[in-house]
Design brief:
This protein has about 525 residues and is α/β, with parallel strands linked by helices. It contains 17 helices and 24 strands. α10 runs parallel beside α11 and α13 crosses α15.
């Protein structure tokens, strides 16, 4: 690999005391020097490849801290149902999709959102069966916390009136006790397990295609999240990533979460969070405290608005969460726990407090983290920093969910997506997208964090605008602090000597452009490890 110099650029380095530079020198996949054009160009040798960036803004590449990457690859080619404006539209889309499928293949899709429909009810197997016939079908709701299966899919999975609800899952049933096809939370996995796995070559091609899509958005690193209790996915994903890494084909850096059901295997093998190299690394052990806002399963201190009896639910009993966190902390394993509701966040903070107070002779070298921290009581906010926890948050959810939040949580919106308070409270703030639950484009997240508005400008002045971040703060949360969340801030997230040469060149300057134009930002060049990948 020949040495490279990029010059005549406006480089945002994130180096303390030297935030801006004009040129950068790269060799062997790492940055060797950063500074003024004249000084860096003077380092050029005959074989150096010199690129004039024409004054373009250059940033460290993005790291998506919460993305279901393997799941996105698995879902590639499935139906995207986000645009279905009614149940009838959804069924028409399914009918049009079926003839494109090979014989025997399942009809799979995701993204339906019944709250937007004229008749806001979940579809059932009785809606699907007349269209799908004997072909099994499984369609996830937009938040992935519910799905609808047709009768053929229930039969393939052996789910009948006699099948008990699994732990932390519900099989919806009609008056006669027959499954309606609607599956909630972990009940979805009963049917998902029956879906045949694609051949390895096809699965790897899908991984590389999704990685290329992410590269084009400026994403150079990800923290891949495990789906709830889906034991088959984790080992398959890790094997595929390592194979692609060994073949030199991986165009982004992957830190893999590990499903909590595997913790005893990790301990038996002596593995620690952070094990791996700069391409594939073991990350956090993933747990789920509660459900979601949209499915009304977030665990709340006070009931949902207009539902006096509903304070949501926990997905993992607190005693079990405490046992897993305690075990992880004793064995060098960092925890990543999904917590949406204010009760879930408080319980999780209590457990971390007790665990950390007990100490460990083998503590993890990465910080523990809470995923989403969607709504949290002001009294609990400073506790994250006090306990050294990362707040892994997805600003695009703020734009997508503000209306739902007002409706379901009322005045508690003031404590929801509280990015300013979390940052000022001293928590490490790591940004992600939660794709495929939301759009993976980091500019949409940065726009939401900076404006607290949707891309259509709603609401004027921003939703709880006190919680707005600056562009610099949002960029840091999507780069350097995302790297810090997996112990990589010494080599990722800055354009600095010794750092990996992972950077992106933009068509505009998000620091000075109209914030409303941030979502349209285009990434002109993407470099990962000194190699141009997009
Ligand atoms: Zn997620």
């Amino acid at each position: 690999m020949l040495p490279i110099i990029l010059h005549n650029a406006r480089i945002y380095t994130q180096i303390p005391g030297q935030p801006w530079a004009e040129a950068v020198a790269i060799a062997q996949g790492r940055i060797t020097a950063v500074g003024r054009d004249a000084d860096i160009l003077a380092l050029a040798r005959p074989e150096t490849m010199v690129y004039d960036l024409g004054g373009a803004l250059t940033l460290p590449g993005f790291c998506d801290s919460h993305i279901h990457f393997h799941d996105m690859a698995w879902r590639r080619g499935q139906m995207s149902l986000y645009a279905a404006a009614s149940l009838e539209a959804l069924l028409a889309q399914v009918a049009a999709y079926l003839p494109t499928l090979p014989e025997g293949a399942w009809a799979l899709g995701f993204g339906w959102r019944e709250v937007d429909w004229p008749q806001p009810r979940f579809p059932t197997r009785h809606d699907l069966d007349p269209i799908t016939g004997a072909r099994p079908a499984l369609l996830w709701r937009t938040d992935m916390h519910a799905a609808v299966a047709n009768s053929a899919a229930l039969a393939a999975a052996g789910v009948t009136a006699h099948t008990p609800d699994p732990p932390s899952g519900v099989i919806d049933r009609d008056a006669q006790g027959q499954p309606t096809g609607v599956l909630r939370e972990l009940a979805i996995n009963l049917v998902r397990r029956a879906i045949p796995q694609p051949p390895t070559a096809q699965a790897e091609a899908a991984i590389l295609a999704v990685a290329a899509d992410l590269n084009r958005l400026g994403i150079v690193a990800i923290h891949d999240q495990r789906m709830k209790d889906h034991h088959e996915e984790g080992p398959l994903a890790l094997q595929r990533y390592i194979r692609l890494r060994d073949q030199g084909r991986l165009p982004l850096r992957i830190t893999c979460n590990i499903e909590a059901g595997n913790i005893d295997h990790l301990i038996a093998l002596g593995l620690r969070s952070g094990f791996g190299d700069e391409w594939v690394r073991l990350g956090h052990v993933k747990l789920f405290a509660d459900g979601s806002l949209g499915a009304r399963t977030a665990w709340m201190l006070a009931p949902f608005e207009g539902e006096p009896g509903n304070t949501g639910m926990y997905l993992t009993p607190p005693a079990e969460v405490a046992a897993v966190i305690g075990k992880a902390h004793r064995h060098g394993l960092a925890i990543s726990i999904h917590a949406i509701g204010d009760r879930a966040n408080r319980e999780v903070l209590d457990i971390f407090e007790e665990t950390l107070a007990r100490g460990s002779e083998n503590p993890p070298s990465l910080p523990h983290r809470i995923e989403h921290v969607q709504t949290i009581q002001p009294a609990d906010l400073p506790r994250l920093a006090g306990l050294g926890l990362t707040a892994s948050v997805q600003p695009i959810h703020c734009a997508d969910d503000m209306v739902n939040t007002d409706r379901l949580w009322g005045a508690r919106g003031a404590n929801t997506y509280a990015f300013r308070d979390l940052l000022d409270g001293g928590a490490l703030l790591a940004f992600g997208s939660d794709a495929p639950v939301a759009d993976p484009n980091p500019w949409l997240g940065i726009h939401a964090a900076v404006t607290r508005q949707r891309v259509d400008g709603y609401p004027a002045g921003g939703w709880y605008p006190r919680q707005r971040l600056t562009v610099a703060e949002a960029v840091r949360a999507y780069t350097l602090d995302a790297a810090a969340a997996v112990g990589q801030a010494h080599q990722q997230g800055r354009i600095a000597p010794g750092y990996l040469a992972d950077l992106i060149v933009l068509d505009r300057d998000p620091f000075t452009c109209d914030p409303a134009a941030i979502p349209e930002t285009q990434v002109g060049m993407v470099m990962v490890g000194g190699r141009v990948v997009g």
